[in-house]
Write a structure and sequence with these properties.
The complex is a heterodimer of chains A (243) and B (792). Chain A is mostly helical and 243 residues long. In chain A, 24% of the residues lie in helices and 3% in strands. In chain A, a hairpin with a 2-residue loop joins strand 2 and strand 3 (131-133). The longest helix of chain B has 16 residues, at 5-20. The chains are: A mainly alpha (243), B alpha/beta (792). At the A-B interface, helix 1 and helix 6 of A face helix 1, strand 1, strand 4, helix 8 and helix 25 of B.
Chain lengths: 243, 792
């Protein structure tokens, strides 16, 4: 017990050092950040409780699996998705993206010279305490930070985050609602499938309750839920004009 | 459905109609697809680096609302990097420049476009020979072509040079000295076929991430690819490499010579390739681009001293690793691709190291087969298309022509329909000299017009090259989209349209020419850069300035409608009555045959996600691109029956040139007073001077400010902890930055690294303007500094 607690303590210390190395960097440069564009103050991101990622070195001696709070499974909630839950899920989703189909930012500190560590939690997804590490929505690619970059505003102290940009960019708040022929027919996929080949990422047991499927036992999603050929870049609009 | 079905059908019909029409007349907001959410999508190459990824741009209600990777694009196959995914946001920073501004009594005040253009014309007429344009590898091909014609064909003045001088000029001289013609023989297909990838002072994991992940994702699919990173600093590329060889700055020449030495000594070079396809060169006295011919025996003799141990002593790379590299090149079964970018180009011996790396590929026969290629990468979206191909350099005329060649001038004058003798035969000032002559009150440049670049942040030794004396009578004109370190010093600011706010054509690192259409309106009074040039030319024409007249007296940039009437493209409201890009491109196309860089008609690029030149018409009328230049199996210009043919050989015998170049130390090395090496560069999230990416929130949040990477032992010795402020001083300037010891990159002991994207931390106050003797490209990777903990 004591040994475990000790190990846990060390682990958090290491994590904190990783976090601090980045936060220290941000803090150190804080006063110079808002020189160019006045902070709009519009996007006050909520601080995240996500723990820092562990480096490969740390993972070798102390893999996530050994923490008591870590699990690969989560019970499906009993409550069926409803419009309110779905709305919450989409709002939460939007907080991590500049626009609907942008790659999500990382809500926790990561080592700046990280490589494959992301996979230790995100390859299959994981539950760590009250946090969910979502499984990847796309096949494994080697360079995670090519597309996903940390959002320092959610894990640095609020004082250090002056990196708000004054922008007139207006993303669409919501995608189209799913097309449904009738009340009992399966809804169409309302988004592109590109980079979202793994439906379970959002709709499986580790997805947000508002987006989870009511029938996780069925594995062949596309058997019933088709998606838009236009959204998937399969055709140009010209094709649709052929009569 | 969220949008009315009838509305969707209507939008789709418009999309189809505009797609079918040539879309070459009238402004058409381009539409490739309209999705069920009412967003219209069309292709465009990404605005940022030279990779040339295609994105799909989603537009709704006249605004860009989303970006997706273009799945039909061969370059990126649907994938992007974090900059590319957020490229649409670069248009919407709240401080976009929307009004022309003129400095009056020291203050910038709004003026009309008419007033602004009159000021430009006044400055030209003051003395056309002292008027300069400082352009860009971010100019589109038609923009660069218009600027080239404005200066060399209109003003009879050759003082036009681009920022790409600071970026890939040494790659150009390397190709010219080796093959007699510019640009890589290979292409990105090599990345799918190589067994070994060697990165030479290159960090594609951050700078060309889509290309790098194209290679390492092959491993995820079970393929074997060995990555060997030869570098002065551990980067994210090193992290994915099996071998990391750290060398002392500038000693890459010794490493390349060490490989050649062993290939010769062990008899493992490709004797047949050498006998059939190569000639030998060394530096002449005085040094010239094409040097002097030597024989194989002399070449061998020169390399004799570059033994593995000798190379280890110079470079710090263990002799065994030099042997390992030579063994890789000795293995004919392997396919080896080399990649390089600024590490080899921003180098006072840049031309030399470029020729040496081509040399070891040629000597070992690792050339001309898929996967066997020495390939330089570019950092800007059209460094190749606009600078290297349109040749917007101080000595150049379109498509490999030079002002010093009588026939080239004559031909250009004929294409431009200007009187014989219009083009000056003396080359203009290259970048460093142009700015020296501008900031010197007695220098011969009185005005510089800057387009699509930010020299106030990116010139080396910026105090010496950019700071002006008060009341010097000089005048700086800046066309840009946001306030920058350059507009801050401007006397006249012209607000520009950017990216999908205008039509465009660019050329990427693999000879691929890419086209897009205007999709949204620019804000306020912002207008296309090409329009600005043409409208200024028209003011001069109306004032009777002879240079802006063709031989027949008509306007130099005049465009006729299908019915033969002059279209007043100098009036902004009428600029899109015709597709001016298409007009300029078709005129430029005539130039491209001389060096076998044939381009297809504009309308062919509308249909494609880019095509790699030479693009040659087939018997059935279709247009075929070329992936592997100089290779008989693919390049239509290779002589019949030949496997390899260097048909622009400097020795005119179909042979490429194998150079010997000795290692010599760089001009400034660390010493007692300035004991550290300073290296500068980029980071994944920001592109060049950050003008665009620092206004994109997710990018700025991920990387908000510049820093200095310090080695942990050096930090300890100077009592510096993570995040402490550190003062860096060179002989030219001082800067204070936070230390990042466990940072993204890990510098070698005795060196520091600072990225240049942050306009609040101008690292170029410290850098050195010493340049390569052939390319005139400065070295941003090496100068001497001292460090100390700054007072709190």
């Amino acid at each position: 017990m004591d040994a475990a607690a000790n190990r846990q303590g060390k682990l958090w210390l290491v994590g904190a050092v990783v976090a601090l190395s980045f936060v220290g960097f941000v803090l150190g440069s804080g006063p110079h950040v808002d020189h160019q564009t006045a902070p709009s103050g519009a996007s006050a991101h909520e601080p995240s409780s996500a723990p820092p990622a562990r480096s490969n070195e740390e993972l070798a001696s102390d893999p996530w699996r050994r923490s008591e709070s870590f699990s690969l499974q989560r019970e499906m909630p009993a409550a069926a998705p409803n419009p309110q839950l779905r709305g919450e899920a989409l709002t939460r989703r939007a907080e991590r993206r500049a626009f609907l189909s942008a790659p999500p930012t990382i809500p926790h500190p990561v080592a700046q010279n990280s490589g494959t560590e992301c996979r230790s939690c995100h390859e299959r997804g994981a539950v760590i305490g009250d946090r969910i590490a979502p499984p990847m929505s796309h096949p494994v690619m080697a360079m995670c930070t090519q597309c996903h970059v940390p959002d320092t505003s959610v894990f640095a102290t609020s004082k250090s985050v002056a990196a708000t940009v004054a922008s007139n960019f207006q993303p669409l708040a919501r995608g189209p609602a799913s097309y449904q022929y009738g009340p009992d027919s399966p809804p169409q996929v309302p988004h592109s499938r590109w980079m979202r080949q793994e439906c379970g990422s959002c709709h499986g047991p580790l997805g947000h309750p508002g987006l989870q499927t009511s029938h996780p036992e069925r594995q062949s999603c596309e058997q019933c839920h088709t998606s838009s050929a236009l959204a998937n870049q399969l055709f140009t609009s010209q094709v649709f004009e052929r009569e | 459905m969220s949008i009315d079905r009838r509305e969707f059908a209507k939008l789709s019909a418009i999309a189809a109609a505009t797609a079918v029409a040539a879309r070459s007349t009238k402004l058409a907001i381009a539409q490739d697809r309209v999705t069920e959410d009412g967003i219209s999508w069309d292709k465009a190459p990404c605005r940022f680096c030279g990779t040339g990824c295609h994105v799909q741009v989603g537009v709704k209600s006249g605004k860009v609302v989303g970006i997706a990777g273009d799945q039909k694009a061969e370059v990126n196959k649907g994938l992007l990097c974090v900059k590319g995914y957020h490229v649409g946001l670069a248009l919407y920073g709240r401080d976009r420049l929307t009004t022309p501004m003129l400095r009056k009594n020291g203050k910038l005040e709004p003026v009309s476009w008419e007033q602004a253009l009159a000021v430009v014309a006044d400055r030209v007429q003051l003395d056309p020979k002292g008027f300069a344009i400082y352009g860009s590898g971010q100019w589109t091909i038609p923009e660069g072509y218009a600027a080239q014609k404005f200066m060399k064909g209109g003003l009879g003045c050759n003082h036009i040079d681009p920022n790409a001088r600071l970026c890939m000029a040494s790659a150009v001289t390397g190709f010219l000295a080796t093959y007699g013609v510019d640009e890589p023989a290979g292409c990105y297909d090599d990345l799918d076929a190589c067994d070994v990838l060697i990165t030479w002072g290159n960090n594609p994991a951050e700078m060309h991430p889509v290309l790098f992940s194209r290679i390492i994702d092959r491993r995820s699919r079970g393929e074997k690819v060995e990555v060997i990173d030869i570098s002065t600093r551990r980067t994210r590329t090193s992290l994915h490499s099996q071998q990391y060889l750290e060398f002392r700055p500038h000693t890459d020449l010794a490493i390349a010579n060490g490989i050649a030495h062993l290939l010769l000594k062990n008899g493992t070079y490709d004797a047949e390739f050498v006998a059939k396809h190569l000639a030998f060169k060394a530096d002449s006295e005085p040094p010239t681009l094409h040097g002097k011919s030597i024989d194989f025996a002399e070449y061998k003799r020169q390399l004799k001293k570059y033994t593995p141990q000798y190379v280890e002593n110079i470079s710090g790379v263990p002799a065994d690793k030099i042997r390992m590299l030579a063994d890789r090149f000795a293995d004919r079964k392997l396919r080896i691709t080399s990649l390089w970018c600024m590490g080899m180009n921003q180098h006072t011996a840049g031309t030399a190291i470029n020729t040496l790396v081509h040399g070891i590929h040629l000597l070992s026969g690792h050339f001309g087969k898929p996967g066997d290629a020495p390939t330089s990468l570019t950092g800007q979206p059209s460094a190749c298309g606009t600078v290297r191909e349109v040749n917007t350099l101080a000595h150049g005329l379109p498509s490999g022509r030079v002002v010093t060649n009588d026939a080239h001038r004559k031909e250009s004058e004929e294409y431009w329909q200007v009187p014989a003798g219009r083009i000056d035969k003396i080359p203009g000032h290259h970048t460093v000299k142009m700015w020296q002559q501008f900031v010197n009150p007695k220098g011969d440049i009185h005005t510089i017009w800057v387009q699509v670049t930010n020299p106030g942040q990116t010139l080396p030794n910026r105090h010496a090259l950019f700071d002006r004396k008060p009341d010097d009578g000089k005048f700086l004109i800046v066309s840009d989209v946001y306030p920058t370190a350059t507009t801050e010093a401007a006397d006249l600011i012209l607000p520009s349209a950017m990216w999908v706010e205008k039509n465009g054509v660019v050329g990427n690192s693999e000879r691929r020419t890419q086209q897009w259409f205007k999709m949204v309106e620019p804000p306020g009074q912002a207008r296309d850069d090409a329009w600005q040039l043409i409208a200024a030319a028209k003011v001069l024409y109306d004032r009777g300035f002879p240079g802006m007249k063709r031989k027949d007296g008509s306007f130099l940039f005049g465009v006729k409608s299908d019915k033969g009437a002059e279209v007043p493209i100098w009036k902004w409201q009428r600029y899109y009555d015709v597709n001016v890009d298409r007009e300029l491109f078709e005129e430029y196309r005539k130039f491209t045959r001389l060096k076998h860089k044939d381009l297809a008609p504009y309308d062919e690029y509308v249909k494609a996600r880019g095509m790699r030149w030479p693009v040659v018409q087939q018997e059935d009328g279709s247009w075929r691109e070329t992936k592997f230049r100089f290779s008989g199996f693919d390049d239509p210009y290779v002589g019949k029956g030949k496997d390899i043919d260097f048909y622009h050989s400097p020795t005119k015998d179909g042979r490429a040139q194998l150079w010997f170049r000795p290692y010599a130390p760089p001009p400034e090395v660390p010493d007692k007073d300035y004991p550290f090496w300073l290296c500068t560069g980029r980071v994944l999230e920001h592109w060049h001077s950050g003008t665009m990416t620092m206004r994109v929130e997710p990018l700025r949040r991920a990387m908000p400010a510049a820093y200095v990477e310090v080695h942990s032992e050096d930090a300890k010795a100077h009592n510096i902890s993570e995040g402490d402020m550190v003062e860096l001083t060179s002989r030219r300037g001082t800067i204070v930055l936070p230390a990042w010891i466990r940072g993204r990159g890990r510098v070698a002991k005795g060196s520091v690294f600072v990225p240049f994207f942050d306009e609040a931390k101008l690292i170029n106050n410290l850098t050195l303007e010493a340049f390569d003797p052939f390319s005139k490209q400065p070295d941003y990777k090496k100068c001497a500094v001292r460090i100390r903990k700054a007072k709190a």
